[in-house]
Write a structure and sequence with these properties.
By secondary structure, the chain is mostly helical. The protein contains 25 helices and three strands. A three-stranded mixed β-sheet has the order 1-3-2. Helix 18 runs antiparallel to helix 19. The two termini are about 35 Å apart. The chain binds zinc ion. Zinc ion (ZN) binds next to helix 6 and helix 10.
């Protein structure tokens, strides 16, 4: 098996299960120690965020990180609905939460320090309603809001963060590794950390409590939590050796279920109609999870079965899924007509709210780009851009369409403006590099690549690109000055990080 660092992440193992789920199981209900105490024995919010960002840089380099704009936009818009219901969940530092998905059929979700929340593709596919998905995401938000991770890690010095990030990653990787040496390498300190990474029962109950409040205030059906946790438990019986990872990191005891049930009893039952986007994104995710020829064949069978259900939402999602399969198979004409059928089907869905995400328009642009019809792609992207001004995926597809149509000067202008507005988006720098390469502008191409590497936290690669840019025959006086300034800045940052790592 390839080395999948993160998937590994909390994708668990019997190793994790064998360890005692930390904490005081004897400390029954009574008055739980107030988890919100202000005495700073925990990681400060700033440090917590920095630690989370550091780990995210590594995760984003993992091939199983699903860097897919429609999926990320769906998850983050969905997460924003949950957070809007209880803004205080962002904590004193006002964390910008970031939700992302990993390609992994194992049913799991987990929170990293600083408000980064992961869901496995398998978990989203297993959720039958948005309320079920909300139950897991709101539970994870609860862990962050109550600062469970920060409190576990305790006070850390600034200079201990990088080693800590490395250690956390190693522990995460070792947890799911069947390779004992990986676990051994982590060593004694790692085992201690591992022990800490399992939340206490009190923390679990608290995350459930906060999660249910979030669900209720955001208008979700709170019984979705019981339904989904129950489904996870049922799934555990059909797994040959492992309980779904989510239940290992978040042990589900009878007591905990009873607790959730008691809380729900007091709540007004709310029927909720799922957005059509939920079904569309699950169809997309099914293919992102496995787009091998075999995977595409299986997805086709599943989508065709879905069509037989004669349910408007399922029909729209199945047509959309079949269109994406066709695109993956290179059948762009077929993809285009299936997507048109999906559009028609979506209009027949009695959705609670109109589609908020550019899931269908995004696929339309991809189809035209693959069909080598840049003018059509640009036309679609222009319309989508006006309709979804906040969609970063559409903004980048617009640039793709300009580049595909050979309109390099327009693309450069547009991307430079975008990069001013969205300074932390490495993809914009990659697109700029692509445009400059097409124009034969070498110095600028490597300068953009350098910026991209720096944004993803790979300073040595960024510095290497700078030196290539400097040697480029077309490097202007102005470029050289920029290169020098960047080099000084990044070398200083790199020395700082090296120093921290060696401590
Ligand atoms: Zn939990």
């Amino acid at each position: 098996m390839k080395s999948r660092l993160i998937i590994a992440a909390m994708a668990i193992s019997t190793f994790a299960g064998a360890l005692p789920a930390v904490a005081s199981s004897t400390n029954v209900a009574l008055n739980l120690p107030s988890l919100g105490d202000t005495e700073r024995e925990d990681l400060s919010p700033l440090m917590e965020r920095k630690l989370g960002e550091r780990i995210m840089h590594d995760i984003q380099r993992d091939p199983d990180y699903l860097d897919d704009a429609p999926l990320l936009e769906y998850l983050n818009n969905f997460g924003a609905i949950l957070l809007a219901a209880r803004p205080e969940a962002r904590g004193e530092a006002g964390f910008d939460f970031f939700f992302f998905a990993l390609r992994d059929p194992v049913l799991n979700a987990f929170a990293l320090p600083g408000g980064f929340i992961a869901v496995h593709s398998g978990l989203v596919l297993a959720a039958q309603t948005e309320s079920e998905l909300a139950s897991v995401m709101a539970h994870e938000i609860g862990h962050v809001a109550q600062r469970h991770i920060a409190r576990m890690l305790g006070k850390q010095r600034q200079d201990a963060l990088i080693p800590l990030a490395g250690l956390l990653l190693a522990v995460l990787a070792a947890r799911s590794s069947t390779d004992a040496s990986a676990a051994l390498m982590v060593g004694g300190e790692g085992v201690a950390m591992q022990r800490q990474l399992n939340f206490s029962r009190d923390a679990e109950r608290e995350a459930d409590r906060v999660g249910l409040q979030i669900m209720r205030d955001a208008g979700f059906d709170t019984s979705g939590m019981i339904a989904f946790f129950g489904r996870l438990q049922t799934a555990s019986r059909s797994y040959t050796e492992a309980v779904p990872a989510f239940l290992l990191t978040h042990p589900l005891t009878t007591e905990r279920i009873a607790d959730i049930e008691a809380r729900i009893r007091g709540l007004h039952y709310k029927q909720r109609v799922d957005s059509v986007d939920f079904q569309l994104i699950r169809a997309r995710l099914r293919i992102l999870q496995d787009d091998s020829p075999q995977g595409l064949r299986e997805a086709t069978v599943a989508f065709n079965n879905q069509l037989l259900q004669m349910n408007p939402g399922q029909t729209a999602a199945a047509k959309y899924g079949l269109a994406l399969v066709a695109l993956k198979q290179g059948a762009t004409d077929r993809a285009r007509s299936l997507l048109q059928e999906a559009r028609v089907a979506v209009r027949a869905v009695p959705a609670s709210e109109p589609s908020k995400n550019a899931i269908i328009p995004s696929l339309a642009i991809d189809i035209e780009l693959a069909a080598k019809r840049p003018a059509e792609a640009l036309k679609d992207a222009d319309i989508a851009r006006a309709r979804y001004p906040l969609s970063r995926g559409i903004a980048r597809q617009y640039a793709d369409a300009l580049i595909a149509g050979g309109r390099y000067d327009d693309a450069t202008q547009y991307l430079r403006d975008q990069a001013q507005l969205y300074r932390h988006e490495p993809q914009l720098q990659d697109l700029l590099a692509k445009t400059y390469a097409a124009q034969g502008k070498q110095a600028l191409q490597h300068l953009s690549l350098a910026e991209s590497y720096a944004l993803t936290g790979t300073l040595p690669a960024a510095l290497e690109q700078l030196s290539i840019a400097r040697k480029s025959p077309d490097a202007s006086f102005y470029d050289q000055a920029l290169i020098d300034a960047r080099e000084r800045e990044w070398q200083a940052r790199w020395r700082e990080e090296e120093k921290e790592t060696k401590k």
